[in-house]
Structures are given as C-alpha cells and as structure tokens.
Amino acid sequence: MLNFAKPAAPNDDKRWRLVDSTMRRQGLNPRGLIEALHTVQEAFGFLDDQSLRYVATSLRVPLSRAYGVATFYHFFTLKPAGEHTCVVCMGTACYIKGAPQLLEAVHKDLGLAPGETTSDGKVSLLTARCVGSCGLAPAVVCDQEVAGKVTPQQLRERFSRWTRP
Amino acid sequence: MTPDELQQIAETELEAQHRFRHRVHVCVAAGCLSCQSQSVKDALDKDIAQRGWGEHCQAKGVGCMGLCSEGPLVSTGVPAVNDRAVTERMYKNVVAADVGEILDSLEGPPVSRLVCPTDIPFFQRQKKIVLENSGAIDPERIEDYIAADGYRALIQALTEMSPREVIAQVVTSGLRGRGGAGYPTGLKWSTVAKSFGAQKFVICNADEGDPGAFMDRSVLESDPHRVLEGMLIAAYAVGSTTGYVYVRAEYPLAIKRLRNAIRQAERAGLLGTEICSTRFSFKIDVRLGAGAFVCGEETALIASVEGKRGTPRPRPPYPAMEGLQGQPTLINNVETFANIPPIIRKGGEWYAGIGTEKSKGTKVFALAGRVQNTGLVEVPMGISLREMVYEIGGGIPDGKKFKAVQTGGPSGGCLPTEVLDQPVDYESLARLGSIMGSGGMIVMDESACMVDVAKFFMDFCMTESCGKCVPCRVGTYQMHRILTAITNMTATPQDLAMLEEFCDLLKNTSLCGLGQSAPNPVVSTLRSFAGEYKAHIEEHKCPAGVCRNHTHDERPEGGAV
Fold it and tell me: CB–CB of A132 and B251 under 8 A?
C-alpha cells in the first residue's frame, strides 16, 4: 500500500477522463466508490468487468466490495441496455391504476419480461420502484421522457414504432 | 453577504418583478414537465417576444402548483401590492397552442374551457408553509428566493442568535421528523450539539424510496434553496462544517436544480467559508443514491454515503453520537429542513400554534390513487382522513366506492372506511396500525383486492431487504410465498395462521425499521379486511376480481433464500 500508484485507464477512450475526474475529486478515497460507479454508468451506459476492476484498483477497494456495491444497488446495471429503454413504474399508485396490465401487454406482444432486452438489442423493458409521477399514474419513462396516464394501447404503439426495422 | 446586501438583492428583485404588469407562471416541476409544460413555456416566451410585450409581461417557470393530475398548469394574474402570490386565475391541461388565447385574455374574461377553479377544497383547505414558494418562485434563481424572504432566517440566526437559542426555537416549535418516525427535531439537534467529535456532519435525507411518495422531490424541484437554508441553520446550531444531501439518482431534475442552487449559494457567499462575515463555515455536497429503499434508514444511509453497501447496523450508538466516519451526525428529512427557515423567521411559538397537541405544524402529502384530484397537498396536522379523501381529494371517480387509504408506503397500513373520521397525526395513525410515514397517501376503491395490495408491498420489502439480518431476509420471502398462495387460491387456513406468526416474528426480531415494519400492510389488512383473506382461502374467489388475472407475477431474480 505504501507505493500505491493509480493504474492507467484500460484504454484511451476519452470517457475514462470523466471517471478519473470524479475519483480525483474525492481524493481517490474509497468513500467515492458509488460516485465513481455513477460516472461510469453515465458515460458507458453500464458497468462491465473492466470498468469495475479499474475503479476498484484506483480507489484501493477490494474487487469483492466493488462488485458487492454494483450488485446491491438497483440503479447499477451490469449489462448494456437496448437502443431504446422503457421503464414501467411499479409504484403503488401506478400498480393500483394498471401498471401490471402494461407489462402484460408488452409481454403478450414481444415476449419481453422486465429486465430483458429484445434479441436485436432494440428495446429494453425495465421496471422502477417509483418514478415519483404518482399524480399521473400509470407512468412510463420512455427514453428518459416521462409519459403519464399511459394505456396499454399507447405503449403498444410506442413499441411497434421502436421495433419497426 | 451582510443583512443589508441581502435586503438590497431582495428589493432590486422585487422592483424588477413589479415592473411587469402581467405575469404568467408555468409549472416546470417533473409532474407537469412530463405533460410537455416546457413547450408551453417556450411558446409563451416566443409569443410574448412577437407581441413586443417583453416590457410588461413575464413568463416564468415555477415549481409545483399541486394539482399534478390536471397538468400542465398555468397561472396568470396581476400581483397585488405586497402580495407575491399570483393566484387570480389558473388554467389546466394547457398545450402550446393555447398560449395565444391565454395572453389575449389577460385583461379580459378568462379562457373558460381551460379554467381550473381555485375555490375548490383542494386549494382552499391547504395551509402552505413548506410549499409557500412552490408555484410562485423560479427554482433556478436565487434572487427570486431571496425576494421571498429567503436566507433571512439564516442571517437572523447567524447574527442575532446563539446556537442554543436556535435549538430552543426548534424545540418550542414542536417540529417532529417528517421522514416518518416523528422523532422530535429539537431533541435530535441538541443531542448532536452536545456530542463531542472532531467534526460533525449534517445530512439531508432525500432518498425518497416509498412508492407513491413524491413530496421531497417536489420540494427540491420547486424550492431547493429552502432546503439548503434549513441545513445551514442546522449546521450552525449543532456546530457542523460539512453537509451532504443524499438524493435518489432517479430524480435527475431535482439533482440538477439542487446542484444549481448550491453553486448559486456559494457564489453569493451563503455557502462556503466565513458565511456573512461570521466564523461560521459550511459546505454542502450532493451524494447520489443508487436505488435502495433500505438507504432511507439512517445507518444504512451513512454506509451508502461512505461508498459501501447500504446495510444498517444496530443502534445505539445512534448517528447523533457516532455516525458518518464515526463522528456525530445529524440526519433529517428534506421536509424537516424545509420547515426550519419559517420557524426561525416567525418563531417557534407561531409554528406550535398549528396542528394538534402532539403533532405540530403542517404535513405535505402526496395524494394519489383512485381519487379525483391527485397531487401534492400541504395540510395542518389533525385534519381527518375523510376530509383528505372526499374534500381535498374530491372523492372517488367513476361512481366507485371507497375501500381503503394507504399511508406510510410499504411500512404503513391500509385504513378502512370505519376510521375515516380519525385525525391525521403521528399518534392516531400509529394507533390505527399504520404510520405517518413520509407522506404518501394512496386511495383505493372497491376494484382493489386488499390481499393483492398486501402482496404488492411484501414483494417490495422482499426485494428491498438488504439481506443482513435473517428475520427480514427469510421472513419477507416466506410471507410473500404465503400471500402468493392466497392470491392463487391455493392457500390453506394453516397458511393464514403461519402468516400471522411471521408478522409477529418480523416485527420483534428484525434489525432495522424495514423488517420491523414490513408486516404492517399484512397486519392492517388482516385486521380490517379479514373477510377478503377468508374468501380467497375458503371460497377460492377474489371479491374484487383482481386475483388470477395476473399472468405477470413479478418474481425476484434468483430468489431471496
């Protein structure tokens, strides 16, 4: 530990600089692990072995702890998302107002279950605990855009637009 | 920043605002933004510029106006002297194409097809303290907040009061933690103030994990400076120099506005070193949560701020003695901090005059589910559940019958018709088998199956259990298994007895609040809706007709045991 030197970035992808700057801002302190993982996910879309290893060794955190943190929190994902993402809110208000029917509609049409991506990598279906748009239940977040009072029909149309070749 | 400079900024800003004869406010909080309120705001800006009205008409993006279900909301009006609130007219469901008509009608009669009546109980029954600026100020400009008496409480505390006097005011106010447990805020502050440590921390808990609750997000999006001011006053009172806001990564807009507010406050000399030329220094950093409900528990939150898995640890020692990095740490909820500036400004006595004997002040609720008016409301403590559902909520739509109101999220309970006349305060809700919680209030009508609802919450607790202690990790799994069997009509009466036993076990042996309160939805539905459980088990039918329709039974990946 005495001669600790921060390892070099895995490759010359410019996005590593963002990760480095987040880690430096915390003084390469192990306490900055979650912040660093947030930056990786923001820059690369997901956390893979390489990035977890890099962040862990840079912050002097055991690999097991980095992996533990990455898998403990729902927000982090270890696999790349599809081109489009659709997050169905499963909060109480949305549940009462028909979110399960939305999932059912997608399942019927595309055979997608929550957490899965279509085989062509076009669309990912995810669920959220609550997106906080309870006044507009049921809410769906399509490509970062919140849509309220969604009906299964509307969601079907959105999916068919996305999956069209 | 001196008191005079603050006054100066406020006056300049007010003068600038009064130059505009007409004001049009557009809600740009997350609820209305998801109904394209930004395009309404852009259309307004464009139209005003085209008409050459820039001199006397201002379009302003403001925070949440409350009635989220009717968004985008727009309010217009000529402000009265010394009255900042623009409430003369409110329009609902506005789209970009309507803005011309709205601008045309500023002086004349309102656009009748868009009018949203403001004399309904939804608006009239509210008493706004935390939300006083929501819908009135631009959340992205510090000047607007200062013009609304912002940061006056901080300067008053720093220049005229000792830390002990600040705490005394908070004690007098009777304010209790708004995160759910209702621990007296003044007591917590004085414990931290008395604790000895090389450094002390102040943490704002904005990890609003309860499904169906969006109060904290709304406050951060509509009035972020208020939270910062509350934290600053707390830091001065307990002697802290570093603060963190732990906010959910799922709230990008709240994070953006919070970061922006921190930058502005730093630039204005209200955050940083030697604030207002006193010896008080304080800095605030944002920490992002990553989607773990258990991190709302304070020891788990501390672990998460330290970059670890969010698992709780036994208390004592309480964070007030040994928290972040082993130092005394004050943790309060967003809404608690947001209550502080008015308490300092108007005095603890004033605040103590609102509410009931043991629950003082107001509480913000996120009213959602099967009611006519859904959105954000702030009401005095002690209001009855009936008033919440039928007056403010406007009753149940589609001619359906009320069945239950759920408070407190997954840790709370479902309250039936019989208790609708009970007041809403910490003690009453606890007596009825629910909790105040952070303020989610979800109304259910006869189309909801209470066993299914209990299963929904148990599924939540099972997935969110951190796995550290066995009663919670295994108990929630087993309870969910039995509830699934009941909704699949395959359960036996023995299962029901077992379920009740689990309720008792989890409550008494779990490590933290998540496990201890996980049985609450089951206990409360068993108490009030035992008939529904019986119907599933003995008659193999679901009275509400919900069960068996679920082909999409969400299961955790991998399982919990």
Answer: yes
Sheet order of strands, B413-416 included: B375-380, B362-369, B440-445, B402-407, B413-416
Round to whole Å and give the CA distance between B100 and B170: 48
Q: Which of these CATH numbers, 3.40.50.1970, 3.80.10.10, 3.10.20.600, 3.90.105.10, describes B362-445? A: 3.10.20.600
Q: Please tell me which residue of chain B has the smallest CA distance to A127.
A: B554
By C-alpha distance, which of B315, B336, B261 is closest to B516? Answer: B315
Tell me: the pLDDT tens digits for B408-420? 989 999 999 999 9
Kindly indicate the confidence band of residue A19, based on its pLDDT and cuts at 50, 70 and 90.
very high
Residues of A in contact with B375 (CB under 8 A): 135
Query: Whole-model pTM above 0.90?
Result: yes
For residue B163, the tally of other CB atoms under 10 A from its CB is 19
Q: What is the ipTM of this complex?
A: 0.90
**Residue B407 CB partners (closer than 8 Å, separation 6+):** B413, B415, B424, B429, B434, B435, B436, B437, B440, B441, B442
* 3-state SS, residue A99: helix
Q: Which of A75, A77, A96 to mutate to test the interface with B (most CBs of B within 10 A)?
A: A96
Ordered alpha helix ranges (H), B446-492: 450-464, 470-487
Pairwise CA distance, residues B78 & B58, whole Å: 11
Using a CB-CB cut-off of 8 Å, the residues of chain A touching B213 are 130, 132, 134
- Number of Cβ within 10 Å of residue B194's Cβ equals 13
Architecture of domain B450-538: Up-down Bundle (1.20)
CA angle centred on B185, ends B149 and B427, rounded to 5°: 115
Query: Is A107:A69 a contact under the CB 8 Å cutoff?
Result: no
Find, in chain B, the residue whose alpha carbon is nearest to that of A68: B309
Q: Could you tell me if A46 and A78 are in contact, meaning their C-beta atoms sit under 8 angstroms apart?
A: yes
Q: Which residues of A touch B550 (CB under 8 A)?
A: 100
